[in-house]
Write a structure and sequence with these properties.
The protein has about 425 residues and is of the alpha+beta class. Helices cover about 35% and strands about 20% of the residues. It has helices spanning about 15-35, 45-55, 60-65, 85-90, 135-155, 170-185, 190-200, 215-220, 230-245, 290-295, 310-320, 340-355, 370-375; strands at about 35-40, 45, 65-70, 75-80, 100-110, 125-130, 160-165, 250, 265-270, 280-290, 305-310, 330-335, 360, 380-390, 395-400, 410. The chain starts with 13 loop residues before the first helix and ends in a 9-residue tail after the last strand. It binds histidyl-adenosine monophosphate.
């Protein structure tokens, strides 16, 4: 039977893994600048962590999780997102004992059994940050600014920053009640997804693509009418902080996000290019999730964060032509003549490697032609020829350097690498 990868997964190698690592490097650097420390949680958790954390009424928990029983019949789930696992680790490791914020980042694979399409995979990588501890509107703005700067650093400028507030935990509950009451009168005329969401997650009805333009949707209760004065002030402070930081945003009253743990500020960064067939793709999403630690048996703690999919960033960076050129050339390629010289060639290769150069040698062939082919394959641009007397053999070593112009030089004796440069 022919084996092949699972639909919606990617093998990373060659240039593609360089793109992936480049984004990872930018992510790590910016995390350091903002003072976020790395956290790694297990790739699977007890299913309960996501069911309680992400929420029973969400698409992720209802339809998309890879859940299985282990040998002792315990239900485990491959992590579909990072926030619930990080919050579980925060509680379990008593990270709350020290006062102040715990600022954490992760760069990890996630798993969701979704229908694959452009930018949507079943195994994908998220870079995410979580700031767990005392909340502040200034922190919300700072987290959004982190996301904004990260995309700017990658050269992704065509993004719409959409922002909304869904109110504090109490405000959100009031709004959900109002939505339930309103939509229950119209549910017969709405799509099947909306019917399911009415009981489990009425807020998500606002997210419905099928009924988006209907009159029922247009007349639905507005969050602003259910916010307390405190919630409104909080949101206004987030917005004025973003103004001060120079982040352009659009307030989207229907932006609710698909996970249950959110409250107050929610945001998404959406690819914005009318001419592109991936216009409207969500590149990054996040928000405040006060109370998730408590939901997972920890103290009542504020928190905010975001997650972004690396595969989507690669897609957009390719489209915008902002992926950097990667240096794929070898510094040197050693060419030997005759089998008796091969071992000395290998020693020289490793001498150069020891000095920090990327050096290649053909382990199989002794003829010149295939050895030159290898030097071509490793993108050598400059050729140095060198004669060396070792023991009784005369070895001709050709060191091909990846510098600038293709040229051939002859040199005697090699004692110092500076001779090559
Ligand atoms: P999310 O909106 O589910 O939020 O995912 C965040 C980002 O992950 C998306 O904007 C997208 O770039 C990427 N993503 C999601 N699903 C896929 C997929 N199937 N294939 C490729 N990329 C995907 C969360 O996961 C929250 N945990 C974010 C967060 C962190 N909120 C607070 N802290």
């Amino acid at each position: 039977m022919k084996v092949s990868k699972i639909k919606g997964t990617i093998d990373y190698f060659g240039r593609e893994i360089k793109k992936y690592r480049y984004i990872e490097e930018v992510a790590r650097n910016i995390s350091k600048q903002f003072g976020y420390l790395e956290i790694q949680t297990p790739v699977f958790e007890a299913t309960e962590v996501f069911a309680r954390g992400v929420g029973e009424g969400t698409d992720i928990v209802n339809k998309e999780m890879y859940t299985f029983l282990d040998r002792s019949n315990k239900s485990l789930t491959l992590r579909p997102e990072g926030t619930a696992g990080v919050s579980r680790a925060y509680v379990e490791n008593k990270m709350y004992v020290e006062p102040g914020l715990r600022k954490l980042f992760y760069f990890e694979q996630m798993f969701r059994c979704e229908r694959p399409q452009a930018g949507r995979y079943r195994a994908f990588t998220q870079f995410g940050i979580e700031a767990i501890g005392p909340g502040s509107a200034y922190l919300d703005a700072d987290v959004i600014y982190f996301a904004y700067l990260f995309l700017q650093k990658l050269g992704i400028k065509n993004v719409k920053v959409a922002i909304n507030t869904i109110g504090s935990i109490a405000g959100r509950a009031r709004y959900e009640e109002a939505l339930k009451e309103y939509f229950s009168k119209h549910i017969e005329n709405m799509c099947d997804d909306c019917k399911t969401r009415l009981e489990k997650n009425p807020l998500r009805i606002l997210d419905c693509k099928v009924d988006a333009k209907s009159e029922i949707m247009a007349n639905a209760p507005k969050i602003m009418d259910y916010l307390s004065e405190e919630d409104k002030d909080y949101f206004n402070k987030v917005l004025s902080s973003l103004d001060a930081l120079g982040v352009n945003y659009v307030i989207e009253p229907k932006l609710v996000r698909g996970l249950d743990y959110y409250n107050n500020t929610v945001f998404e960064f959406i690819y914005d290019d009318e001419s592109s067939n991936i216009n409207g793709l969500t590149l990054l999403g996040g928000g405040r999730y006060n109370g998730l630690a408590k939901e997972l048996d920890g103290p009542d703690t504020d928190a905010i964060g975001f997650g972004t999919g690396i595969e989507r960033l690669i897609l957009v960076m390719n489209e915008l032509g902002v992926m950097p050129k990667f240096d794929e050339s070898a510094d040197a390629c050693i060419i030997t003549i005759g089998e008796s010289t091969k071992l000395e060639g290998i020693r020289l290769t490793n001498y150069l490697r020891d000095l920090g150069l990327r050096c290649e040698i053909d382990y199989i062939n002794h003829n010149l032609k295939p050895q030159f082919k290898l030097s071509d394959r490793v993108f050598a641009k400059k050729v140095f020829m060198k004669k060396l007397i070792i023991k009784t053999c005369i070895i001709t070593l050709i060191i091909i350097l990846a510098v600038t112009n293709l040229s051939v030089c002859y040199a005697d004796g090699l004692t110092d690498i500076s001779e090559i440069n």
